[in-house]
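Chain X:
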Amino acid sequence: MSAALGALVYFSSASENTARFVARCRLEERGVDVFRIPLRPSDPPLSVREPFVLMVPTYGGGDIRKAVPMQVKRFLNDPDNRRWIRGVIASGNTNFGEAYCAAGDVIAAKCQVPYLFRFELMGTPEDEATVRDQLPRFLAGLADPTTHGAPGTPGTPTT
């Protein structure tokens, strides 16, 4: 594990909206590692071995069954990645109605982790400040042995 507090793992489509949001948060300056889930299946898979929060855009145009991008599903289907997830942040479009940020709902439920934050589309400066300030605090709390920071607790798949 690195000397960082933990990590933010994110997925961004070719539009780069999520990538730009993450860059504006400047999380590395706050001691948070940042990793991107590859866009193309031909790219080498991402392997994360430290506690992380997942940031994901919502897909599906309002269809909750299609809310989680395939690349994110592939990443989380690796048990060695999934065991380290500690929370989720999602972006979405309020035009999706009840499916707004549904990827976060789906992942939080399936991985049994807290849904920490949601924001619309590219986020606002206030959204960036919230993530920049609160994510390092959340990750720092995972180092406390009385919290759920031990590998294999939240994020462990249920059968």
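Chain Y:
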Amino acid sequence: MKSKKTPQLSTAKQRELGAELRRIRMRAGYLATDMSRMLGWPASTISRLESGLRSYQAGDVAIYLARAKATPRELDALVALDRLPDDGYQVRRHPTAFPDDLPLTTTLDTGSQSITTYDPGDIPRQLQTEPFIRETLIKNGHTDGPALDRAVDKRIANQPISLRQPGPFTFYMHKATLLKRTQRPAVLHEQVLHLLITSSLPRHQIHLVPADFALVNPHPGFALYRHDQHRPLVHHQQPTTSLFLENEHDVAHYTSQLEHIASKAFTVQQTRDWLTGYLAKLERQLTQNLADSK
């Protein structure tokens, strides 16, 4: 009896390249069958290549991009990406506090079966409201205008609640983040209300972490992405760069960190109770501010 062949799990780099090939092909108005005919490749090869489920030979990416009418800049960037080692460590640069536009981040946000996020210093970007995103990006040096509008729209569009993904999605955030009150009261009120509503959705779990909790080795926030057909991946966000980790010992380390965080965090119901009380407090403050302004 033949043993079942273990399915090959795709890497982050393969998925990123595949997503970019699909985007450029669709922009040119070609179907996958058109590419199959022009390249002389089986349709299944095109599908698996764009899904990140197939390894490719040297030169395949350049040939595909040329047929799909990629721009010279796209061709250079993606051929350079293709030549990077696929060793479980990927580094990408991005604007301050905004990794959302990275093709790899978009691929992970829109194509993962589960996401678990820990953010010690801010509200996870997957949970932020439009006014909160706008104020946060402006504080990080982004200029108000069309570019900021596009950034806000991009972040909202890739949130689980916008994509209506089944999940599960689990978020850990520090209670101190909400108590800092760095946003205007009305913005913070809307954000807390959004957290409360989101926490009631199926397979969306929000856990507050006590203000005095700290990991042994403190670091910026991170997210763990999982999918049956892809290797688990940790996105470790820095202010202007993102590190994507896939090696087993890295994923195991961050999984252990999440287990430790979960053991100290509030339950979902405790979090909802605290948010409800805090929302009432913010509403009283807004009412008082309105009365004082008259």
